[in-house]
Please model this.
Amino acid sequence: MAAEFIQINYLRKLLAISLSVILTGCISSQPFPEGIKLSQPLSPPTVRAPRVGQEWVYQVRNVFNQEIIDTVTEKVVSVGAEIRITGSGVKSGPLPDEI
Model:
């Protein structure tokens, strides 16, 4: 009985070592992927600065049946060193300010 246990442990070790060697051989033989080198964009696009009073309205929908869950309105309140945006939802009420 002890001899069978030793043989099983020996086979487990042999299997683990051979499996790791085979997998390492398969991975190491893969070539390094070559792609097309792209240059950096020349200049980022210019974006218009936000103004006080700008407003966005979003409809929050259920992803399963596209039912409208809430309508959220966000509005720019102040522009300076920080831009502060307030939000409010029809069902959820006032939302925390975004800075």
The chain has one helix and four strands. Residues 2-28 form the longest helix (27 residues). The first strand starts at residue 55 and ends at 61.
